[in-house]
Input
Amino acid sequence: MHQEAVVSARIGVPLERSQGEKRVALIPSHVGSLLKSGFEVVVESGAGTASGYPDAQYTAAGATLADAAAIWKSSDVILTVRSGAALSPDVDPKWFRSGQIVIGTMDPWSPHKSFTAYQKAGISAFAMELIPRTTRAQAMDVLSSQANLAGYKGVLLAAELLPKMFPLSMTAAGTIVPAKVFVLGAGVAGLQAIATAKRLGSVVSAFDVRAAVKEQVQSLGAKFIEFDVGDASGSGGYAKELTPEQQAKQKELMAAYVKDIDVIISTAAIPGRPSPKLITEAMVKSMPPGAVIIDLASERGGNCELTEPGKTIVKHGVTIAGPLTIASTVSFHARQLYSKNITTFLLNLVNKEKNIVIDPSDDIVAATLLTHQGKPGSEKLASILGLTSQ
Ligand code: NAD
Output
């Protein structure tokens, strides 16, 4: 009887060590599909606990358990959520193996470049944030899957912090007017924020610098605000950075608009650049007392001049939240979607002969391979990200 070839490789899933990180890279229900392909799966004891998966669920799904050292030393492929593991004091770079593959979010634009430890060790490191926005890569797109959750949870956080109701309510004691929500940046997170704020009954408006977004905003029943700064659509579905003149104009027009706004959900981002500072201190001062800004662009510094990433502060009577791990607070769905993204990515590396191959002619590989055999994955990435050989 013909026996189908299987992948002979060991997948390791270490515990996430970043502060506030509640996700795990692989959930028990995806272990089975990897085992079926022939992979062996080994999970660090306790890796799934914060996201609600006890060790027993992994062993029931067919994975084995081990400690961090054993996982790093013995695995061919390591699946992570955040690559910071390489810098964690309780992960010893001596455990790393040349030729090993590490897949996760690597924060490739950070000046600290945690993945350089991987490069030094000869590890092939893939950054999930760099997945191209193509149809084939859609199921691997972690930025989309996690931004969608962030947009949803950002609105719920605003509703919790705002001393007003979101919906209209007519009662014998008086009429409650709906809250006014303004969404700045209507990409994946922004569109979900619009939909969620609408469902809660608020009056929603939005602005984005990409011309195509207007129709998407309107199709969700929100008002698109025409701050006439010109179309800044860039490549791959992303925005281009505005010129200083365009940005000044945007700020001037926004200043007049936000005076009356109860909640700003800001998500404006440019890949590889710090978040544009679009909400000035003067705008914050002008907002109604008790207003709320949820700055979902905090990971890259935030869209508001006053945002303190990772903190919730009150300035000039306005609450400004700069959450850093907001997707991970919807941990059930965050880990489910992330695990699907990373499993799909991994299976894309397996060829017809059931071998794991790093094929630079594959556009997904070329876009995401940060380091390979001690060097940057490609000259193009090296020049975009400022990578050097170790
Ligand atoms: P992002 O996180 O990089 O940016 C968030 C939003 O901020 C973007 O919509 C951007 O245009 C906007 N922005 C930038 N500067 C701004 C400014 N000065 N003022 C206001 N807004 C500003 O983007 P994202 O949400 O990850 O994705 C952007 C788009 O990519 C999506 O809306 C979608 O159209 C596309 N996309 C395509 C695919 C696919 O085809 N597979 C997958 C995901 C996303």
